[in-house]
Specification:
Bound molecules: 5-O-phosphono-beta-D-ribofuranosylamine
Number of helices: 7
CATH class of the largest domain: Alpha Beta
CATH topology of the largest domain: Rossmann fold
Largest sheet: 7 strands, mixed
Distance between the termini: 30 Å
Number of strands: 9
Strand order of the largest sheet: 3-2-1-4-5-6-7
CATH superfamily of the largest domain: Formyl transferase, N-terminal domain
Strand content: 15-25%
Structural class: alpha/beta
CATH architecture of the largest domain: 3-Layer(aba) Sandwich
Length: about 220
């Protein structure tokens, strides 16, 4: 069983999806700690209600990004965390943090990286006239929304989409994608070769993983 820590700043729907998948036994892991940099993050109560330890580490209490990250790293280590999942954690990580958990930090981003990193990515995809977008789970390196890609899922963009409808369509797949990627990590089936992640997944399973994560209707 791997010990996972989840970092949030808000709603926490991806966090809930990961906790649900762990509870169902789909991921060989338990969540030892949820940390939020915001005391009013709605996700905190959702984690606490199911008995997951939670902690608020307010970034405003630290003078620098490094000082804040050092507190977070200490808390994660004290909780025995081996793998860190960023789930709507609205903070850039300093090298201090990235190096402390090298190749063991996952992030989910609501676009098909390397297209559209940063914020307001649905707006960027719409403005670019892209026909497809989606989501990406990747290992975190020292650049923003960057690092070896683990899994991606694809959704179409329709002519009448706005940011809200596109976000909703992508979020429906995010929850499945993140759980699938964390499972691969916890099963030790991810290695890093330079800038690429190599998945130790048989061809059939790979087809099922990627084929199963293509949008198939707004009812999802
Ligand atoms: C998700 O769209 C995720 O891709 C992005 O931030 C959002 C977080 O949503 N990084 P939630 O807090 O998991 O509901």
């Amino acid at each position: 069983m791997s010990q996972v820590g989840i970092l949030i700043s808000g709603r926490g729907s991806n966090m809930v999806a990961l906790l649900d998948a762990m509870d169902r036994g789909e991921i060989p892991a338990r969540c030892s700690l949820v940390i939020s940099n915001k005391a009013d993050a709605p996700g905190l109560a959702l984690a606490a209600a199911r008995g997951v330890p939670t902690l608020v580490i307010d970034h405003k209490a630290s003078a620098t990004r490094e000082e804040h990250d050092a507190k977070v790293v200490t808390a994660l280590r004290e909780a025995g965390v081996e793998i860190v999942c960023l789930a709507g954690y609205m903070r850039l990580l300093s090298p201090v943090f990235v190096r402390a958990f090298k190749n063991r930090i996952l992030n989910i981003h609501p676009a098909l990286l390397p297209a559209f990193p940063g914020l307001h990515v649905q707006r960027k995809a719409l403005d670019a006239g892209a026909r497809f977008s989606g989501c990406t789970v990747h290992l975190v390196d020292e650049e923003v929304d960057h690092g070896p890609i683990l899994l991606q899922a694809v959704v179409p963009i329709f002519p009448d989409d706005d940011e809200e409808s596109l976000s909703r369509r992508i979020l429906g797949l995010e929850h499945h994608l993140y759980a699938a990627a964390l499972r691969l990590m916890c099963e030790g089936r991810v290695t890093v070769d330079g800038s690429r992640a190599v998945l130790d997944v048989p061809h059939k399973e790979y087809q099922r993983l990627s084929g199963g994560l293509i949008w198939s209707g707004d009812s999802q």
